Amino acid sequence: MKLRHLVMLTLSAVATAHAALLTDLEYGTAAGVSLRLDAFIPDGPGPHPAVILVHGGGWSGGDKDGGPKKGYMVPMHAPLSAAGFAWFSINYRLAPAFRHPAAVEDVETAIRWVKAHATDYRVDPRRIALSGESAGGHLVALAAVRADRTTRVAAVVPFYGVFDLAAEAKRRHGLIPSFHKLFGRDTLDDTMLRMLHDASPVHYVQPGLPPFLLVHGSADETVAYEQSVTLQAKLRAAEVPCELITIPGGPHGMLPWPPLAPDFKDRVVAWLRTAMPADAKAP
């Protein structure tokens, strides 16, 4: 009864234009799995800009709630909330139980769900962005480059994502465990290289994509900083707006970043405001 009462109070807050945090909403089902998200809706009638947040974890771990250390995308919750953004933090199907492209398909399902429920959650469907970190950075970039009318978004913010999977495998001198789990193959042979190529956002860059903001630490030993440099060059060559925030000396993961770049969250929020102005046209 207490849980049901809390849910009713939260839904009432959404309906009356008060700030609300809702947890474990079902945004879809796939292969018998209930896909869940947490949502924050700011004060006021809106419609508010929104960001769909996608956690990392090597495609085989991680969680929308940030885990014990409140990492993954959780550090961006407070700055987005304070700036008047709605956000939707999603879980998705994980490897090895679910292979590629299950995870990116779940991201696409979440985009459609947020658009379909934009009025319910006081969200502006013209101002929906994607943001993810690590494996989630790969997923949001991949969703953006393969988008159709139903999944196109207004802006994309990947943090230290892998955008050329084959290049990363070669840099690591072989098939890393996360790639094995994602694709279910043991060796870096021609077939595996083709699978990595086909899952790499960098190979699908084309004119007309939404603007990108890439965020990456220069000392990242897990995902090469050059991954973001290369994607930025490819996007700009296609005349897609793309900025890159470099965290000097930044490792993989944003939890250690504040002493290195105290303003990085503010810079991300400021970029989102510019990329998704109140008078934005439909993407």
Brief account:
The protein is an alpha/beta fold and 283 residues long. It has helices spanning 2-15, 77-82, 102-116, 135-145, 165-171, 177-183, 190-198, 226-237, 264-275; strands at residues 20-30, 33-41, 48-54, 86-90, 123-133, 155-159, 212-217, 242-247. The chain contains nine helices and eight strands.
**Radius of gyration, Cα only, in angstroms?**
18 Å
- Can you tell me the residue ranges where pLDDT is under 50 for at least 5 consecutive residues? 1-9
Strand order of the largest sheet: 1-2-4-3-5-6-7-8
- Which CATH top level class fits? Alpha Beta
| CATH fold-type name | Rossmann fold
Number of helices: 9
List the main descriptive attributes of the protein structure presented here.
Rossmann fold; 9 helices; 8 strands; alpha/beta; 283 residues
Structure explained in plain terms:
It is a single chain. The protein is of the alpha/beta class and 283 residues long. The protein has a single domain (2-275), classed as Alpha/Beta hydrolase fold, catalytic domain (Rossmann fold, 3-Layer(aba) Sandwich). Helices cover 33% and strands 21% of the residues. It has nine helices and eight strands. The protein has helices at 2-15, 77-82, 102-116, 135-145, 165-171, 177-183, 190-198, 226-237, 264-275; strands spanning 20-30, 33-41, 48-54, 86-90, 123-133, 155-159, 212-217, 242-247. The protein has an eight-stranded mixed beta sheet with strand order 1-2-4-3-5-6-7-8, with helices on both faces. β3 (48-54), α2 and β4 (86-90) form a beta-alpha-beta unit. α3 crosses α4. The longest helix is centred in the middle third of the chain and has 15 residues, at 102-116. The radius of gyration is 18 Å and the shape is globular. Mean pLDDT is 94; it is low at 1-9.
